[in-house]
Trehalose operon repressor (Evansella alkalicola), 239 residues
Amino acid sequence: MRNKYIQIYKDIVDDITKATYQPQTLLPSEHELMDKYGTSRETIRKALTLLAQNGFIQKVQGKGSIVLDTPRFDFPISGLVSFKELANQLGENHKTIVEKLELLPPTEDMKGILQIDSSEEMVWEVQRVREIDDEKIILDKDYIKSSKVEKLSREVCASSIYEYIEGELGLTISFAKKEITVEEPTKEDRNLLDLEGFSNVVVVKNYVYLEDASIFQYTESRHRPDKFRFVDFARRTKN
């Protein structure tokens, strides 16, 4: 089967996420995985390499593959992924509530952020609340240039804007600059999120660019601080 190693990778990730394989324990051996999935050693090794590259295991020569600690609510710092793409890691009970979708003239601040020169350029303003396990714990505030995304619907916003941009519009989202700060909740934060007892929110600001290096989106993701760890996985390579 073509790309069978990807399916094996996803299956093992699911087992790690569900704690079928506990942190600091060994995965089954290559031979055991070959028997389990009915495939070749090469396919298993490709799956294990992908697991190592993404921080799920550490391969130790002569010992095997050690499962690393990957808590369910870890959010990667270096990745550029949508909430929908992360949803499988956040449990089954999650949903997106679209609070606002408007096409508006940009403010002076937003003109600077999105590098807008034209007086005719409009900006999509989207506010989405992310609810996990019946608690409203993320407020995403997106500002998107209408010259790059002419049409946007509430259905798209409730599903995945990135999926729409890449799949329907054929644009390539390339990279982002990120800033992380801790701030006092605004009145808007307290109205839209379940923040009783919390005196701050963690704000991740994303400046997102297309493959031609043009900025098209600015996002503020405002998180309740008790639910997330913002992590990165760094692997040293020798020169």
About this structure: The chain has two domains: 4-67, 74-231.
